[in-house]
C-alpha cells in the first residue's frame, strides 16, 4: 500500500511540477541563445562565489603552506633525517 501511495504522489505531484519547472523556468540559464557572443557569466566581487582568495569560482584553494599532493605541509620530502 505504501508503494502505491508513493508512486501516486510521484506521478501526480513531483513529476508534473518538475515538467512545469523545466518548461517555464531555467535557473541555471542553460537554454541555447543563438545571438549570444558568449555564455560566460562573470562572478560578482563580494558575491556568493567570492571566497576572498582571488581564485576562480569552483577552483579549490588550499591553506598556505599546505601541499595538496602529499597532504603534508613540509613539501612532501619524506621523513626528516
Can you summarize this structure?
The protein has 81 residues and is an all-alpha fold.
Overall description:
By secondary structure, this protein is mainly α. It has one helix spanning 2-24. Helix content is 28%, strand content 0%. It is flat, with a radius of gyration of 24 Å.
The fraction of residues assigned to DSSP E strands is under 5%
Largest sheet: none
Please count the beta strands (DSSP E, at least 2 residues each): 0
Q: What is Rg? A: 24 Å
Instruction: Report the average pLDDT across residues.
Output: 75
Per DSSP, the total helix count is: 1
Q: Could you spell the SSE succession in H and E letters?
A: H
Fraction of residues in helix: 25-40%
Based on secondary structure, the structural category is mainly alpha
Tell me the distance between the termini.
Answer: 68 Å
- Backbone shape: flat
Uncertain runs: none
Attribute tags:
81 residues; mainly alpha; 1 helix; 28% helix; flat
